[in-house]
Amino acid sequence: MDAKEEKLSTLHGLRLPRVNLSHRRNRVFDDEFGFYSEEYFREMLSMERKRTERSQKPIILAMIDVAGILDSVSRRQIVRNLTSVLTVSAREIDVKGWYRDNHTIGIIYTETNPASKDSILQKIHMNLGLELGPEIAGRVIVTYALFPEAGDASGGKDGHVADVRFYPSPYGYSPSKKVSLIMKRVVDVVGSSILILLFLPFFVLIATLIKLTSKGPVFFTQTRIGQGGKPFRFIKFRSMISGNDSSLHREYVKKLIQGEADATAQGAHGVYKITNDPRVTPIGRILRKTSLDEIPQLFNVLEGDMALVGPRPPIPYELENYHIWHRRRVLEAKPGITGFWQVAGRSTTTFDTMVRMDLQYVMRWSLWWDIKLILRTPLAVLKGAY
Q: Do 302 and 196 meet the contact criterion of CB atoms below 8 Å apart?
């Protein structure tokens, strides 16, 4: 663990769970087919994608869909022929394995010129035809994905975040975590239902105060980006004047993400929130300071768009300014009401530090850590957002 990770791991006294680096599937190598198993291949895909995020040297993911032929000819012969196809269609340094077990074979072409994708596909098609024959090869579907995408420096434009095929492992998914992920959803449903009932008096009181003190609706709805880049309808209590212009926040977030020094010159004291924002109503200031404006997000949790614990869901225009590595916080986990950053960092961190904390959460996630973050949330709320 480097110094930066060590600092994050003990931030505000909250120690992160350790990563079990020794965990591996019983068989890293698929003995029957002669290449990597799905879990290990996806680990390698994730590693190569992260390497590209740092080096900007592109990778190409070729996917060979063989589901249509595995049941129609001799399985043993297909094993022999496909192994031969992969051997002659890729270099020794390229990674070959199951992208999806018994369905799709993947080849990761590392540090490859994007312009070579057509010749790579032609070579795969040619070798499939030579090994399987034109009739069977015609039932094999070959596709590809390029990372980073051509001309791609940031995400979010036209609702597009990134090619999700390069982000196949939410919460570092493995078969051993399947039960924990199911339990996470159970905790979300049960927890949000109980909290909605407990907060009913606050719903009535806050709604009344909003209606008495400013014109406009009680609730504020907005499009946010969820897990895998999927947009959803985000809901919270309205804390600003109705019909306000978002350009102030849009410009502030742009400068914040880009790390410009004058981002704090507008009165900002932390990530996302502007302290002296003229658009905020008097009641809204109280709601924001106590985080009571976020109570309606419990309905987002109940609907499944959010979790009780996870990264903060971004606004689409924020994604336009994301660096390529920032996207992982959106693509690899379901957004949450509270989380590692919300509890341990909140309004005292830079944007990049917030993203690193989100990625630490995704990488080291466990159900027990979720519970600890939930239990620490009331204290973080009492301290105030800023």
A: yes
